[in-house]
Design brief:
This protein is of the alpha+beta class. The chain has a single domain (5-163), classed as 3-Layer(aba) Sandwich (Aminopeptidase), CATH 3.40.630.30. The chain is built from five helices and seven strands, in the order E-H-H-E-E-H-E-H-E-H-E-E. It has helices at residues 15-24, 34-43, 72-80, 101-115, 132-141; strands at 5-9, 46-52, 55-64, 84-92, 120-128, 144-150, 156-163.
Length: 165
């Protein structure tokens, strides 16, 4: 049987799968129950899932500048950038890692963002405690650091951007 991988806009039917994927990596992202996902999805400019044989393997959730998103990292970028899309989170399940699907999710987001006038992708990556996998992934995708933030928790995040072609 041939496996089919597709990328598509997330729907309310994906909520449970997205919440479960997020819960599995909550140490390097932030908590998100079904209600939180529903509110973030409503604020987002894009929420794209990747699925194989109708199973959601990962997702990216992003907001465009100007969104009514009360988030300190988003605000930090808003104070410094125009015409950007902010990656709130990108999550891949264990079975999807190493298959190039994160890059393809970002390619989908970049295309969507460009079609809606964005010139830059923005994201923060945990620097301390380090999220080495995410740092390597973002570097390979072409993100560069433009600053850092120290959060109230003591966590330090690298604030990064990638200009869109």
């Amino acid at each position: 049987m041939t496996e089919t991988i597709i990328f598509r806009a997330a729907t309310a039917h994906d909520t449970a799968a997205i919440v479960a994927l997020n819960d599995a990596v909550v140490a390097v992202t932030s908590p998100m129950d079904a209600a939180r996902f529903t509110s973030l999805h409503a604020l987002s400019s894009a929420c794209i899932v990747v699925e194989r044989n109708q199973e959601v393997l990962g997702f990216v959730l992003a907001m465009r500048n100007g969104a009514a998103y009360d988030n300190a990292n988003f605000s930090w970028f808003s104070d410094r950038l125009n015409r950007f899309v902010y990656v709130d989170r990108i999550v891949l399940g264990d079975q999807a890692r190493g298959l190039g699907l994160g890059k393809r999710l970002y390619d989908q987001l970049a295309e969507h963002a460009q079609c809606h006038g964005s010139l830059i992708m923005a994201a923060e990556i945990d620097q301390y405690p380090p999220n080495a996998g995410s740092m390597a992934f973002h570097k390979a995708y072409g993100f560069i650091e433009i600053g850092t933030r120290t959060l109230d928790s003591g966590k330090i995040v690298s604030m990064q951007i990638k200009p869109l072609p």
